[in-house]
Specification:
This protein has 456 residues and is an alpha+beta fold. It is 37% helix and 23% strand. It is built from twelve helices and 15 strands.
Length: 456
């Protein structure tokens, strides 16, 4: 029976990027053999199979190729499991062994559910509870009272922070590099009590950065300046517009529910190019993932920031180089950057993607300055730089310079990333995408003739 092949071309690299960790990827590859499966089939919209397991019953695996969406009957809680990856890897290398077969009724129903489910489960809200006008007003007043109490605590915390900063500057920063972690953690703990979690994290990060950077004094001055800006901005917040006040509160750690963002802010429809990905564990021990996107029509950039807790994985998977057709909603109106998807799917027609790049360091810094005018508390700025030359200096350190021979200050990079940049560039000009912190550039991906190459 003749069918059109799926529009999404799944490569080995793209499938590997879905794996929650290296161990699951390795185990998945061991299942990428038809001998490991009782049955495998496809209707060109999805693939499915029965994987031989240790028990009497095989594991049922099904994958919708657009998205992708997947399901497995195994008990693993952190998807995709090794069985999903194994079937996917097998499909990528030997799609011919997947014979056409009409899906079962249960599988067809599951595929229909995936097609109609456009909003992630995290953004779905419970059915509204009918309330009387009086109850609604009471709830509104209670919320306002809780916020007023929090602002009072924040005000006290900011006053204490400013006093600490003033004392530190008066004494000088010459001995800052030899201060123990407790020097920063004591103040950080007070900021938590004052409902200022972002400042607490920032203080702990500052101590870590001092230990990691030889030019630590530059880091200290910049970060103490940022802390003072926060304190002064909060003190004079009534002079700010309502949008800028909200930007300030969010930068200090105010949490906005995703459902509220989706309900209150307009969406932006576009083809979103996945430019770069950064994953790690922050100073508080939380697993985080940052996904940078650029709209192909609007040229807007967006940041998807997710956190994973415990053994739970991320709800959605993103692959650098993919093109997503969808609508996203920005958290902020003052300076749109962080966003969440209202809905998306892999683009059905792969248009030629473009990345906005700066021609040199000066033009990038000019745009960064304009962004700071819109949001003075901006700590991550997406940057594409073209016409770069990578080389190793006399100290065996990676150096990158722009077309005007200005050196781009880099963050501390893993050795694997350094050698990847040097090997692929081969002395020729390259284009890199990454994050600018205000002091350093951290490359996340490279544009090549074959597409975009992720460093993570």
């Amino acid at each position: 029976k003749s069918k059109n092949p799926p529009f999404m071309q799944w490569t080995d690299e793209k499938i590997a990027a879905l794996a929650p960790n290296d161990s699951t990827e390795r185990r998945g590859r061991t299942l990428a053999s038809s001998a490991k499966w009782n049955t495998i089939a496809t209707n060109y919209e999805a693939i499915w199979g029965e994987c031989k397991g240790s028990g009497s019953q095989p594991y049922l695996v099904q994958i919708k190729l657009s998205g992708p969406k997947y399901k497995c009957s195994c008990p693993v809680r952190k998807p995709p499991c090794k069985h999903v990856l194994g079937l996917f890897f097998l499909f990528a290398k030997s799609s011919a062994v997947f014979k056409y077969q009409a899906p079962t009724e249960a599988l067809k129903n599951w595929l229909d559910q995936q097609s109609t489910s456009t909003v992630s489960s995290a953004s779905k809200t419970l059915a509204p509870v009918l309330k009387t006008e009086e109850a609604i007003e009471q709830a509104k007043l209670a919320k306002q009272k809780r916020w007023a109490q929090r602002v009072q605590l924040m005000t006290s915390g900011m006053d204490e922070l400013e006093l600490w900063l003033t004392d530190l500057i008066r004494q000088g920063i010459a001995n800052t590099d030899i201060q123990k972690a407790s020097f920063w953690n004591q103040v950080a703990a007070k900021m938590v009590d004052a409902k200022l979690p972002r400042i607490s994290t920032y203080l702990k990060e500052t101590h870590l950065l001092i230990q990691q950077n030889q030019n630590w004094s530059e880091v200290v001055v910049a970060r103490l300046g940022a802390l003072y800006l926060w304190a002064e901005s909060f003190k004079k917040r009534n002079l700010l517009s309502a949008e800028m006040q909200e930007e300030l509160y969010q930068s200090l750690g105010k949490i906005i529910k995703k459902a509220d963002i989706l309900a209150q802010h307009p969406s932006s429809k576009d083809l979103w190019f996945v430019l770069g990905k950064k994953e790690g564990v922050d100073i508080e021990g939380r697993s985080f993932r940052k996904i940078w996107l650029q709209g192909q029509k609007t040229k807007q950039q967006a940041l998807i920031l997710d956190y994973a807790f415990g053994s739970m994985g991320y709800e959605q998977q993103y692959i650098v180089g993919d093109l997503l057709d969808g609508a996203l909603v920005y958290y902020s109106k003052a300076y749109p950057q962080r966003a969440i998807f209202e809905s998306f799917e892999s683009a059905k027609i792969y248009e030629k993607t473009t990345l906005n790049t700066y021609k040199d360091l000066n033009s990038m810094l000019t745009s960064y300055g304009k962004a700071l005018v819109q949001n003075p508390w901006l700590f991550s700025f997406p940057v594409g730089l073209s016409n770069l030359k990578a080389f190793v200096n006399d100290k065996k350190e990676l150096q990158i310079k722009d077309v005007k021979d200005r050196i781009i200050p880099l963050s501390n990079l893993k050795e694997a990333i350094i050698w990847k940049i040097l090997a692929i560039s081969g002395g020729h000009s390259v284009s890199l995408f990454g994050e600018w912190s205000g002091l350093h550039f951290e490359p996340l991906s490279m544009l090549t003739e074959d597409g975009i190459l992720s460093f993570t």
